[in-house]
């Protein structure tokens, strides 16, 4: 998989696929270590043109063409040791730290069955296969030994029950005061003070939950993600017990 990057410039409107990030220099002869953002080893091992965008460049600035002359995989690190033409000294390699390696979006490599480009997955709607409940939207894909879908959960709060038990009974969402005036009025009377305080705490917790969008990481394996319909922008999942409870 490879991630779609920003447009190179307003004039060319060229879009790019991010294939890796330079994370450091290696040795004295200009080699760089590249953290792979692509599942295609040939992006780092086969000689040819790549495009480079340094961290100080404008976000939408046009990347510069570089030639990759050689590369090899570094075991267990999801990194490659790469040599770029014209980068022959360590200080030159250090200057490229955090630079992004890219290729034009049109330069997509062929996919095997069951493989997908990251840019085709982002924005897909994620639904529970058993109930067709909409869980959320894919916002990113991470590689941590295996691929993980980052899902921005929909407005429905799976972690929040429809009603919350208190020491004095059940408090439904509809019973929670929506204004300070209501809360103050109840707190002012000793007979309703305890219940009003509990309502206030419940309201504060619910407001806190709404402040930050919730995300969930879902392992992108066939057992959990059996259906990926790129054309429809739809992904169906069959999560094991407990996975959704982590949201």
Walk me through the structure.
The chain has helices at 42-45, 90-94, 118-121, 180-187, 190-211, and strands at 3-7, 15-26, 31-36, 48-53, 64-74, 79-84, 100-104, 125-128, 134-143, 147-153, 163-166, 169-172, 215-219, 227-229, 234-237. The protein folds into three domains: 3-104, Beta Barrel (Elongation Factor Tu (Ef-tu), domain 3); 118-156 and 214-246, SH3 type barrels; 163-211, no CATH class. The protein is built from five helices and 15 strands. It starts with a strand and ends in a 10-residue tail after the last strand. The radius of gyration is 25 Å and the shape is elongated. It has a six-stranded antiparallel barrel with strand order 2-3-6-5-4-7. A six-stranded mixed sheet has the order 13-10-9-8-15-14, with no helix packed on it. It has 247 residues and is α+β, with helices and mostly antiparallel strands. Residues 6-12 and 157-174 have low confidence and may be disordered.
CATH topology of the largest domain: Elongation Factor Tu (Ef-tu), domain 3
**Class of the largest domain in CATH?**
Mainly Beta
Strand content: 35-45%
For the record, the CATH architecture of the largest domain stands as Beta Barrel
- Oligomeric nature of the chains: single chain
Termini distance?
25 Å
Order of helices and strands: EEEHEEEHEHEEEEEHHEEE
Mean pLDDT: 78
Structural class: alpha+beta
Number of strands: 15
Q: Characterize the main sheet.
A: 6 strands, antiparallel, barrel
Strand order of the largest sheet: 2-3-6-5-4-7
Question: Which bin fits the share of residues in helices?
Answer: 10-25%
Number of helices: 5
What Rg is obtained from the alpha carbons, in whole angstroms? 25 Å
Low-confidence stretches: 6-12, 157-174
Can you identify the CATH superfamily of the largest domain? RimM
Number of domains: 3
Instruction: Specify the overall morphology.
Output: elongated
Keywords: Chaperone, Cytoplasm, Ribosome biogenesis, rRNA processing
GO molecular function, one term: ribosome binding
Family: Belongs to the RimM family.
Domain RimM N-terminal: 19-105
């Amino acid at each position: 998989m490879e991630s779609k990057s920003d447009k190179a410039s307003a004039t060319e409107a060229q879009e790019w696929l991010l294939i890796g990030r330079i994370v450091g220099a290696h040795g004295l002869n200009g080699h760089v270590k590249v953290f792979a953002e692509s599942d295609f080893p040939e992006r780092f091992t086969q000689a040819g043109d790549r495009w480079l965008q340094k961290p100080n460049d404008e976000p939408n600035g046009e990347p510069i063409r570089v030639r990759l002359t050689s590369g090899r995989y570094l075991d267990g690190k999801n990194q490659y040791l790469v040599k770029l033409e014209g980068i022959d000294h360590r200080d030159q390699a250090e200057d490229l730290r955090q630079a992004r390696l890219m290729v034009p979006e049109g330069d997509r490599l062929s996919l095997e069955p069951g493989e997908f480009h990251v840019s085709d997955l982002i924005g897909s709607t994620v639904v529970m296969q058993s109930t067709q409940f909409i869980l959320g939207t894919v916002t990113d894909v991470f590689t941590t030994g295996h691929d993980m879908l980052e899902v921005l959960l929909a407005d429905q709060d799976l972690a929040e029950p429809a009603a919350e038990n208190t020491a004095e009974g059940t408090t439904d969402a509809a019973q929670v005061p929506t204004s300070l005036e209501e809360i103050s009025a109840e707190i002012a009377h000793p007979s309703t003070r305890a219940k009003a305080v509990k309502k206030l705490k419940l309201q504060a917790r619910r407001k806190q939950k709404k402040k930050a969008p919730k995300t969930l990481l879902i392992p992108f394996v066939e057992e959990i993600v059996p259906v990926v319909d790129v054309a429809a922008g739809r992904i169906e999942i069959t999560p094991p017990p407990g996975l959704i409870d982590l949201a």
